[in-house]
Amino acid sequence: MDAFRIQGGSRLSGRIAIDGSKNASLPLMAAALLTDQPITLRGVPALADIGNMSRLLGELGVTVHGLHGTITLQSTDESPTHARYEMVKTMRASICVLGPVLARRGRASVAMPGGCVFGERPVDLHLRGLEALGARIELRGGDIVAQADRLVGTTIFLGGPFGSTVLGTANVMSAATLARGRTVIESAACEPEIADLAELLNAMGARITGAGTPRLIIDGVDELGPADHRVIPDRIVASTYAVAAAITNGDVTLNDFPYDNLLAVIDRLSQMGVRVERHHPDEDPRRCTVQVTTQRVLRPVMITTQPYPGYPTDLQAQMMALLCLAEGNSMIAEKIYPERFMHVAELARMGAQLFRQGPTVMIQGVKRLVGAPVMASDLRGSACLVLAGLAAEGTTTVSRVYHLDRGYARMEETLNALGAKIERFNADVPEPADQPVPMPAQLVEIFR
Ligand code: EPU
Q1: Looking at residue 15, what is its pLDDT?
Q2: Ligand 1: which residue has its CA nearest to atom 43?
Q3: Pick from 141, 144, 109, 103: which is nearest to 123 by CA?
Q4: Which residues of 356-372 are buried (b: 16+ CB within 10 A; e: fewer)?
Q5: What is the set of active-site residues?
Q6: Domains identified in the chain and CATH numbers
Q7: 338 preceded by cis ω (within 30°)?
Q8: pTM for the model
């Protein structure tokens, strides 16, 4: 398994561009199941999860040309309807094929995703939404089996105990494009990834209004056609690199930065004393150039994660690394996944002062972090540990970086291009230091 060895203390500077969004790409790829016409997606990132989704779509009769960058997908065999557990367990986002397969093929069976390291992750809202459209749903042998001759539009309230659901909205909205009549989704997710999906679906001939707001109106059509679509930049990757600049007291320019989709993050960063400045006001604020610099001293802040446009849960761990070095006490309340704190114990190994009580962590700023061996157990937690390693004194090794590879394309190369010192190595091969040290010759003599 690959690991990172990070020599902390380098100040990052330079310029990088932000890739297309993973969390937008996955449901966009699944939308190809809604038609037998080709769908071209541009700016798809080179990530393990994109490969996983391509494999799953391949099993569902979709031909996928290209691995990343520009990919073309075409549903050429519409008979398969089963997403196997072996596929779903590698990637929870596989659930987003459920709505499209059901709407187009009349039947879908998708293995029920299990929980994950940051808690139970139910799909009840996905199922409730599809049932409201007329699907008959049962659980059979660990699979969600959904059937309907043709879905029928209705009004659906899709909010849950933690607010809206992103992939649930993607599933129900995608399915409703082919339903008979009008569907209204209330308490829909407003995330930019949903607006991006609606843009693709409309380009395919769907009739969706209200994307990006909590009320979506979808007038069903009989068929969808081909489309060519550019994926939005990844707001979580963009803001992770902004935090990397801040935590190293650097000066980094980010191209293709989705400024308008990151207002809650930019607000917190500016409260801390991190400047995220646009130098070309005429550029599209959804894809523009920003310069990230700091005022050296970081001020503490309060953060509560919320559905969009609130502060994103997917940037909670990374910001915690930065707050460890603020002058004073900060607070993070996690309102989407109250258990998403595996990075807390690992940061503590690096000298962070963290006090957790339920879904809240108090962060007492320290003067410095110190390098240590740490282990990642999820994607964003891994990013947090890499960021901490960049700022720490000495060497940090982050193991199991396969988590990181799911959401950041060759992160070490990107950061090294900005001046970081990160080496990827295979942690299964013993390091020279770990190998048995030969007994000195004099001792060999004594024991002979
Ligand atoms: N929830 C329910 N019932 C449901 C679905 C969700 O109660 O049927 C709850 C969840 O347990 C959670 C909240 O609602 O408390 C929000 O979950 P949501 O459904 O929005 O999450 P998701 O769609 O499965 C996407 C991202 C996650 C991101 C969340 C929240 C993708 C592929 N995944 O997941 O991204 O954390 O939205 O913004 O888009 C990541 O990229 O690291 C990641 C985990």
Answers
A1: 98
A2: 314
A3: 144
A4: eeebebebebbeebbbb
A5: 116
A6: 2-19+233-426 (3.65.10.10), 22-230 (3.65.10.10)
A7: no
A8: 0.95
